Amino acid sequence: MTQPQHGDVHQAGQPQADFVRSDVVIAGGGPAGLAAALSFAREGWQVSVVEKAPRSVLEAPAFDGREIALTHHTVHWLKQHGVWDEIPAEAVCPLEVARVESGRLGGPPLIFHAPGAPQEASSDEALDGEPLGYLVANHLIRQALYRVVSRTEGITLLCRTGVTGYQASRNDVQVQLSDGRVMQARLLVGADGRFSRIREMAGIGSIVHDFGMSILVCRMRHLTPHDNTALQWFDERQTIALLPVASDGGIGDISSLVLTLPPDDIARLRVAEDDDFNAEITRRTDERLGLLRVMSDRITYPLKAVYAHRFHAPRVALIGDAAVGMHPITAHGFNFGIRGQETLVQELSAGPGDPGDAASLQRFERRHRRATFPLFTATNAIAVAYTRDDGPFPLARRAGLMLANRLAPFKKAVTRMLMDPV
Ligand SMILES: Cc1cc2nc3c(=O)[nH]c(=O)nc-3n(C[C@H](O)[C@H](O)[C@H](O)COP(=O)(O)OP(=O)(O)OC[C@H]3O[C@@H](n4cnc5c(N)ncnc54)[C@H](O)[C@@H]3O)c2cc1C
User: Fold this and answer.
1) CA 68 to centroid of ligand 1, rounded, Å
2) Chosen domain end from 303, 323, 351
3) Domain at 17, CATH number
4) Which of 40, 104, 127, 176 has the maximal Cβ count within 10 Å?
5) Which of 68-72, 300-304, 309-313, 401-405 comes out lowest in average pLDDT?
């Protein structure tokens, strides 16, 4: 790939250019923005992606601790767009079982097996034999998306520059960049993350749910096999997830730790000596996977969920976390990002040929809200109910898990929703 000489501009499949008039400008080259660029380009629209980070970050994103649980629908989309082939097969970990537990004294766990597994009472012909989903490191997904974007005709990447403002008129939108350039397009897509400036500039408010907690994520090695099982454990005063990670050929298995605690505890654990950290995490996990040894950087995130009041404004659409920033507990942020950009491009393609068509944007909003709002609300409710240790909460959740485990139709419905079949 030719390196750009002026700024950090490169038009995939075409000579470099300083300024490009596009059909669509996408603010943000994160997973949602890059996926949207592929979808728009496939429909024959000229797309520019504007990303604040340098190109080197997109080319080789650093490990960020997120292991993304991909639904079947997302994997299908990644395959259709040539992205799946760019992810090393040995880095993909099928998820066979999900266990949800409540507290040390909690009753039996709620267990979801892949459909058709011998332990699963109910079966679902369309899904039998399929894993619940697939876990892949976020940086590998981002790298794979970048590789496909960089060789796709019709996509221009402008790196190391941000969108700082825009003006929408009846027929187009002028987009101001931090390097002083102005771009012209028919649609501006805000894919700039959960604290989106585009959302703010468009005057779109949002529901922000601050859980007052932080998350620490890292990879840990252990000798007890993980058996492709994800554990979500709502313990007293801590929430722990242990997610299976594909083996690297080294000794033992690897799991991703997702630990939710008050910000001060997370700050302390982030910088603790390795030995102290390992001892504390082994104790906190009750030695379920034996002794745990940290093998990656420890990355922390604030725990805030965001839902935009609207997903569009004149000549503007919001996708990814800018539209719906999920609590990671139900592992749906990226999956909704894929779903959202897909719905957006489908609706605009079915419209009169204007990628900023207002009626098509409204249809996108309706469909994406229907697809996301129920799980957004349910996820926040679960996150609150399962992290409160006062009053009736501990007892209620134990009873809830016990009941849910016995309700085969409920479990089947949740399994289907989490797998999101094609
Ligand atoms: C611990 C953790 C675990 C998770 N696990 C899962 C999971 O299992 N399954 C799942 O589906 N999801 C999961 N998620 C969620 C998922 O990671 C996010 O939903 C996804 O990364 C959001 O992608 P995005 O492109 O919308 O936003 P981002 O990744 O935030 O990207 C936004 C991009 O916009 C750029 N930008 C910002 N402002 C501007 C500007 N003004 N101009 C130009 N560029 C700009 C930024 O530099 C960035 O590159 C998890 C998240 C966390 C924190």
Assistant:
1) 11
2) 303
3) 3.50.50.60
4) 40
5) 401-405
